[in-house]
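Researcher: For the record, we're logging two predictions in this thread. I'll number them. Prediction 1 follows.
Model: Prediction 1, sequence and structure:
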Amino acid sequence: MTDNTLSGRRVLLVEDEMIIAMLLEDMLDDLGCCVVATASRPAQALAAIESADLIEAAVLDLNLDGQMSFGVADALAERGIPFLFATGYGDAGLTERHRGRPVLQKPFQRDDLGRTLQTLFASKQR
């Protein structure tokens, strides 16, 4: 998938499995996105959100080594930064507050990620 709408988009990646994080970084790069930070723990992700005014979207793993990423999701939502959950749990693992957020069921393909990010950016512009 090559689409100019994702070119240069700045994305925060929150994933605790190093191999999966590297794979997602490659996928995002292939899509034309720029990964501004990769965090493996909620505290790291929150620090990245606080320090980076440049985040346009985020990809969140739901379970970060036993810690749920809902606090990160809340911080992103408060700032109006669109995000999606990338998880093996599907939407069944979401709290009521985050139901309806985009969810990519692991494993997924690069094109699935690209389409979901495009939808995030399109909905933010409305």
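Researcher: Logged. Prediction 2.
Model: Prediction 2, sequence and structure:
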Amino acid sequence: MKAFREHKGIAVPLDRNNVDTDQIIPKQFLKRIERTGYGEFLFYDWRFMSDGKPNREFVLNQPQYAGASILIAGRNFGCGSSREHAAWALAQYGFRAILAPSFADIFTTNAGNNGILLVTLPEPQIEDLQERARAAGYELKVSLLDNTIIDAQGFSSKFKIPEFRRTCLLEGLDEIGITLKHEDKIAAYERRMA
């Protein structure tokens, strides 16, 4: 997992509540046997028309958001099924951080295990950031070193994150990686039990 310390990038507003994992990565793309190649299918039913052409109205297809890496979403982002594919699609598309008033529990774990920082902010701050992000080239700097979000226009906010998740992201370790930090103790225990 790629470690997260600080990230500065273009922010894109996704002004929708209750975005579920089937909207993030539709079920027809879950047949793949690899963990790669999901980014191109992110928000597929919103990004593309029924004839396969890009939907120019959808925010990610607008030129000012090319290369966006910070998503500003509505409340309850990542609800629905527990598919980890949703986190894979977001990360492989290029998103490093997602800001929202709230996130679904299982999605929170999946995102963290895939190096995506989820930042919960009060709804008025999210609405303010979504409005700011409508300007072309709007960038945010998200720091996990001091738990802050800032922009060049004066926005600044602190955020909270559980210490376990913060440590995992800072060190670039998923739950298995954290466990393997104690490999010597695990091996010693197995020798004693043998």
